[in-house]
Design a protein that fits this description.
The complex is a heterodimer of chains A (251) and B (402).
Chain A (H helix, E strand, L loop, with lengths): L3 E10 L2 E11 L4 E5 L6 H9 L6 E6 L2 E2 L5 H6 L2 E4 L11 H14 L14 H13 L15 H13 L5 E5 L7 H15 L4 E5 L3 H7 L2 E6 L2 E6 L1 H6 L1 H8 L5
Helix pairs in contact in A: 3-4, 3-5, 4-5, 5-6
Chain B lengths: L5 H15 L1 H4 L17 H24 L6 H18 L4 H23 L4 H22 L1 H4 L5 E2 L21 E2 L2 E2 L3 E6 L2 E6 H22 L1 H11 L1 H5 L5 H26 L2 E2 L6 H14 L6 H15 L5 H7 L5 H11 L7 H15 L3 H17 L2 H14 L1
Antiparallel strand pairs in B: 1-6, 2-3, 4-5
Classes of the chains: A alpha/beta (251), B mainly alpha (402).
């Protein structure tokens, strides 16, 4: 049984059928890539997983409980963290604060009116956050304001913010979009390092280089449905995939 | 001591010193001198400084931290005022119950308004709060006349029950007091040509403001305060981080509403009269001006902003043409008229114009308000002193701290 089971999910936007009977089964510990051409429904699917969109029909079960009708913060509290296409960070705050917020979120739950203790006295939370900043190589910049970071560093920060929560499932929406080759390779290395922690990951990606260096299972989507699923080697050779994705060109 | 870090402690002690020595600091000019009209050290104005300081400190917890701009906070101040006067009418002339009940009522009312208004954010939130405040104003002005006494305003009467006060009325209205100490009382101290007034009412307000200021520092430095700043910079990320922004913003809204109620309660404790105009949108706008002028999101900014605006309102508005003619009497006749003519629009009833120009200059050149001005001056100063690197490096991070 998978840690995430998506069964028969449909989603319509007016006349457009964005998702059509999507079934995906993600096994615990896997790095599961979802690829497909633009408009295939990858992002819509991801949004259905994190509570941003509600599927019209179908079920989404995570770790034995349904994710339907839950708010984004409730889904996060179940152990699902998400990295966005454009890094979503707290730009006005410094890096340490950026990572302390998710740490506190895990410690205190969705809401706690803790208006009397001092943030600079929470040494446990701080140490945990500093540890993660070390892991992604941003410790030296911990007192910088997040908006002053480069694109690649913002992505690292966002990853640290997700990882500090020890998620069971990490969703990565085009983690290397808009990055230079060097930044892309750095991010791949970082993600591989994270892989050693055994966190289940779903990666949505355009860049085949990234997909084939990370994933151990791939689902290919086109026009709202999953057209192929399997190990990277199998997918590479699948003619249907080449047809849908590359118009017949060889990968 | 106090549980504050060293920087905040310094700030708190500065504010403590400023408020405690205000009667001296605000009366720098000798009595009877040409400049005595710039003295602000009389009880009524000093009370207003600290009361509006409280109002602005509370407003800043909502606006400065979460970025939610409420245009209706005067409604909570008004509710606090009415509740306070009713306590003075029904219970006792001791101001303590009046102040406590003001805070409670304003808190309850802001919970309702906040719950509804926070369904929206940005400009829609502002409009909703504005609508609520204007409805409250209209209700207080007409429909709820039995409670608010309409346009006359709610005031004390000789036949009020005051069930906790036993002393027989001697035909005059009793004065508000704090366990027997009358708020209007005080003593005067003459030092040479200087005259300093120490008013008990002012000191009660000042102490309460210090407590309010201390609580606001604690909130700013707490995990709750950090979450509020997170709401301001990226609500989406906060939501996907497992935090629910709504109860956080609602709590901030209620806390700032209670601060407004406290300010309203203190107003009637000093002068037991509550009118509907206190809830009007101009009053809500004033606290926005105070906070931005002083520096939104900074600890001390709102207090400074409140001081500056109240000073202008009370001192600049007193200067009239006669005073101007006096100032320029050394000039030849024609020039004198010309100068008075030029300055005339900016003084007296035209003080709003001066304030407006100042506000524009601050927003354009010092978006961080008076506090940013102070920081820049200090940087300039420390650069001249030769320790350039220290001032430059810390300046980037100084904003949320101060």
């Amino acid at each position: 049984m998978g840690i995430l089971e998506v069964k028969g999910v449909n989603k319509r936007f007016g006349g457009l059928k964005a998702l059509d009977e999507v079934n995906i089964n993600v096994e615990a510990g896997a790095v599961h890539a979802i690829i497909g051409p633009n408009g295939a429904g990858k992002s819509t699917l991801l949004n259905c997983l994190v509570g941003r969109l509600e599927p019209d029909t179908g079920t989404v079960d995570f770790d034995g409980s349904s994710l339907l009708n839950l708010q984004p913060h409730e889904i996060n509290q179940l152990g699902v963290s998400r990295v966005f296409q454009t890094p979503e960070i707290f730009s006005d705050l410094d890096l340490l604060e950026n990572v302390m917020i998710p740490t506190l979120a895990r410690r205190d739950g969705p809401f706690k009116l803790d208006a009397w203790s001092r943030v600079d006295h929470l040494s446990e939370v701080r140490e945990r956050a500093e540890e993660l900043l070390q892991d992604v190589g941003l410790f030296e910049k911990r007192e910088m304001v997040a908006s002053s970071l480069s694109r690649g560093d913002k992505r690292r920060l966002e990853l640290a913010m997700c990882l500090v929560q020890d998620p069971k499932l990490l969703l990565l929406d085009e983690p290397t979009a808009g990055m230079s080759r060097a930044d892309t390779n750095n991010t791949i290395d970082l993600l591989k390092k994270i892989g050693e922690r055994g966190i289940t990951k779903i990666v949505i990606e355009h860049d085949m280089h990234v997909v084939f260096s990370l994933a151990n299972k791939i689902s290919v989507m086109a026009q709202g449905t999953v057209i192929a699923e399997g190990k990277p080697e199998d997918i590479k050779g699948d003619p249907r995939v080449q047809e849908a994705y590359l118009g017949g060109a060889h990968l | 001591m106090l549980g504050l870090n060293s920087k905040d402690k310094t700030l708190f002690l500065i504010v403590l010193a400023l408020t405690m020595f205000a009667p001296f600091l605000l009366n720098p000019f000798p009595e009877g001198s040409e400049l005595a009209q710039f003295n602000a050290g009389y009880p009524d104005l000093m009370q207003r400084f600290v009361i509006f300081g409280i109002f602005a400190i509370g407003f800043n917890i909502l606006f400065g931290l979460t970025g939610y701009l409420s245009f209706g906070h005067a409604a909570f101040l008004g509710v606090g005022s009415y509740a306070g006067v009713w306590m003075l009418k029904l219970l006792t002339m001791n101001v303590v119950p009046a102040i406590i009940v003001s805070v409670i009522f304003a808190g309850l009312f802001s919970a309702v308004v906040g719950y509804i208004s926070l369904r929206r954010s940005g400009i829609y939130f502002s409009i909703l709060t504005l609508a609520f405040a204007q409805m409250s104003f209209a209700l207080a002005y007409s429909v709820l006349t039995p409670i608010t006494n309409g346009e006359t305003g709610l005031q004390l009467a000789l036949n009020d029950p005051r069930i906790l006060d036993f002393d027989a009325a001697d035909g005059s209205l009793p004065a508000t007091n704090f366990f027997g100490i009358e708020m209007r009382d005080g003593f005067e101290l003459a030092l040479g040509p200087w005259l300093f007034t120490f008013n008990f009412g002012y000191y009660l307000c000042a102490i309460i403001m210090l407590i309010a200021f201390y609580i606001s520092i604690r909130i700013f430095r707490s995990p709750f305060g950090l979450m509020l700043r997170a709401v301001k910079t990226n609500q989406q990320r906060l939501r996907f981080t497992g935090k629910n922004p709504k109860p956080h913003t609602l709590a901030a809204f209620i806390i700032s509403g209670m601060y407004a109620g406290l300010a309203g309660g203190l107003m009637v404790a000093m002068d037991p009269l509550a009118g509907a105009e206190r809830m009007q949108w101009t009053a809500s706008g004033e606290v926005v001006l105070m906070t931005i002028l002083g520096g939104a999101g900074t600890l001390i900014g709102p207090v400074l902003g409140a001081g500056v605006i109240k000073y202008f309102e009370n001192i600049f508005s007193k200067i009239n043409d006669n005073v101007l003619y006096n100032w320029f009497s050394f000039l030849p006749d024609g020039m004198q008229d010309a100068f008075v003519f030029m300055i005339h629009p900016f003084i007296g009833k035209g003080w709003h114009l001066t304030l407006g120009i100042m506000f524009m200059l601050v927003v354009i050149f010092l978006p961080g308000g008076v506090v940013e001005g102070g920081q820049r001056l200090r940087q300039l100063f420390s650069r001249r002193g030769g320790s350039d690197s220290a001032g430059g490096a810390s300046s980037a991070k100084a904003h949320p701290a101060e």
